[in-house]
Amino acid sequence: MNLSPLTRWHPAVIWSTWFWSGLSPKAPGTMGSLAALPVGYVIFLYFGPVSLAAATLLVFFSGWWSCHIYVRETGKSDPGEVVIDEVAGLWIALLVTGGDLILCLAAFLFFRLFDIWKPWPIRWLDQHVKGAFGVMIDDILAGIFAAAAVLLLAQLAFFQID
């Protein structure tokens, strides 16, 4: 992969690819989400949902910045190796799990489903909103959809969410 003039050690590359997990040759979005899952879980478990929400906002805005540099320097419109958007989206879904491991797994699966399937309006955002903001925003909505699905699942399965 040619990242010229960016190198693998450029902060925008490290952050955009979530510490190079997006450089996986197979399923980079899923690999990035898998790499983000334990980090989000630990933030939720040890620091609480408010801290995870704050971390999600930080990832969103810093991801927007790093995507801007990455897209500008590589000339790609929505590079598959950029997975910081998956991090923010997945962490949104984790916010409603109450730290329950089964619901965290469900959040991961629902997020990947909505991120890959891209139902309306996620698909519309993916196709019509360009640039670094466009890279980020469709995954944010996929995370919101996944959070709603987790809440529905929790209600149907009688999970107690703290």
UniProtKB/TrEMBL annotation:
Transmembrane regions listed in the UniProt entry: 52-71, 91-114, 135-159
Lipid bilayer topology: Multi-pass membrane protein
UniProt KW Phosphoprotein keyword: no
Keyword field: Cell inner membrane, Cell membrane, Hydrolase, Lipid degradation, Lipid metabolism, Magnesium, Membrane, Metal-binding, Phospholipid degradation, Phospholipid metabolism, Transmembrane, Transmembrane helix
Assigned EC number: 3.1.3.27
CDD domains attached to this UniProt entry: PgpA
Pfam family, any one: PgpA
Job of this protein: Lipid phosphatase which dephosphorylates phosphatidylglycerophosphate (PGP) to phosphatidylglycerol (PG).
UniProt protein name: Phosphatidylglycerophosphatase A
Species assigned in the record: Sneathiella marina
Taxonomic placement: Bacteria, Pseudomonadati, Pseudomonadota, Alphaproteobacteria, Sneathiellales
